[in-house]
C-alpha cells in the first residue's frame, strides 16, 4: 500500500514538474497567450488537492471538492502584493456578475501572519471566500510563481488557464474566459454543496 501511495505521489510530482516546464516554455515563447501574463492551457491539468481555513466571508474550511460542478477562479495573493490592490476589487466585481450557483471566486492568502491579510481586506474588502495558506503548501502545490496568481478551473476540477500578475484590463480577459467555460456543456458530476456554503454564498453559521 505504501509503495502504491509513493508511486502515485511520484507520478503526480512528475506531472506537475512537466506542467511547470510547459508554463515556462509558454512564457518564454509567449505562445497561446492573450497578454504576457495570461496563459490558456491547450491540455487542461487536474488541480492539486487543497483544503484550507476560511478567514473572511465564512467559517470552517473549504476544499476543491466543495466546488465540483462549478467554474472557479482560485486566486493566490498576499498583503504585500502591489497588484493585489487592483485584482481583489476587480475579482469582487466579477464575482457579483455571475450566478453563484455556477461560478465562484476563491482567494487564498499566503500571508504568514493572518492579521496582515485581515488588515489588507479591511482596506480592500471582498464578498467572496478568503482562505489562508499560512504554511505555503498549497501555493507550492500549485507552483505559484508570482503574486497574484490565478487559476481558472472548470466544472470538472481541471485547470484551463493561469494568470500571473494583474493590471488594468485583465478583468476583461478573465470575464471572457469565465463566460466561455460557463457556456460549455455541464459536467455530469453534480454540484455537492459544502456545509459552509448556502445558496451560492457562504453560510456564516458554518
Which helices and strands, and how do they pair?
Blueprint: H1 2-29, E1 33-35, E2 38-46, E3 51-56, E4 61-63, E5 71-77, H2 84-97, E6 103-109, H3 114-123, E7 130-132, H4 137-141, E8 149-153, E9 158-164, H5 170-182, E10 197-198, E11 201-202
Parallel strand pairs: 5-6, 6-7
Antiparallel strand pairs: 1-2, 2-9, 3-4, 3-7, 5-8, 8-9, 10-11
What does this structure look like?
The termini are far apart. A hairpin with a 2-residue loop joins strand 1 (33-35) and strand 2. Mean pLDDT is 81; it is low at 5-12, 21-35, 187-195 and 197-206. The strands form two sheets. Strands 1-2-9-8-5-6-7-3-4 form a nine-stranded mixed β-sheet, sandwiched between helices. 34% of the residues lie in helices and 26% in strands. The protein is globular. It is an alpha+beta fold and 206 residues long. The chain has helices at 2-29, 84-97, 114-123, 137-141, 170-182, and strands at 33-35, 38-46, 51-56, 61-63, 71-77, 103-109, 130-132, 149-153, 158-164, 197-198, 201-202. It has one domain (32-202): Glutaredoxin, CATH 3.40.30.
Taken in chain order, the helices and strands follow as HEEEEEHEHEHEEHEE
Poorly predicted ranges: 5-12, 21-35, 187-195, 197-206
Q: Which CATH top level class fits?
A: Alpha Beta
The structure class reads: alpha+beta
Helical fraction equals 25-40%
Keywords:
disordered C terminus, Glutaredoxin, two-stranded antiparallel ribbon, globular, 206 residues, alpha+beta, 5 helices, 9-stranded mixed sheet
Compact summary:
The chain is of the alpha+beta class.
Amino acid at each position: 500500500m505504501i509503495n502504491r501511495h509513493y508511486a502515485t505521489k511520484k507520478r503526480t510530482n512528475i506531472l506537475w514538474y512537466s506542467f511547470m516546464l510547459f508554463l515556462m516554455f509558454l512564457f518564454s515563447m509567449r505562445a497561446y497567450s492573450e497578454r504576457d501574463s495570461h496563459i490558456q492551457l491547450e491540455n487542461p491539468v487536474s488541480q492539486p488537492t487543497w483544503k484550507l481555513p476560511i478567514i473572511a466571508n465564512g467559517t470552517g474550511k473549504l476544499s476543491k471538492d466543495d466546488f465540483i460542478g462549478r467554474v472557479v477562479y482560485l486566486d493566490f495573493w498576499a498583503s504585500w502584493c502591489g497588484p493585489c490592490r487592483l485584482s481583489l476589487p476587480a475579482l469582487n466585481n466579477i464575482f457579483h456578475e455571475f450566478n453563484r450557483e455556477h461560478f465562484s471566486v476563491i482567494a487564498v492568502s499566503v500571508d504568514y501572519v493572518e492579521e496582515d491579510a485581515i488588515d489588507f481586506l479591511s482596506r480592500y474588502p471582498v464578498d467572496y471566500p478568503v482562505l489562508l495558506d499560512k504554511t505555503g503548501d498549497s501555493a507550492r502545490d500549485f507552483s505559484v510563481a508570482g503574486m497574484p496568481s490565478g487559476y481558472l478551473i472548470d466544472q470538472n476540477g481541471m485547470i484551463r488557464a493561469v494568470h500571473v500578475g494583474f493590471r488594468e484590463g485583465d478583468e476583461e480577459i478573465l470575464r471572457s474566459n469565465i463566460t466561455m467555460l460557463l457556456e460549455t456543456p455541464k459536467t455530469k458530476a453534480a454540484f455537492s454543496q459544502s456545509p459552509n456554503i448556502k445558496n451560492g454564498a457562504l453560510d456564516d453559521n458554518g
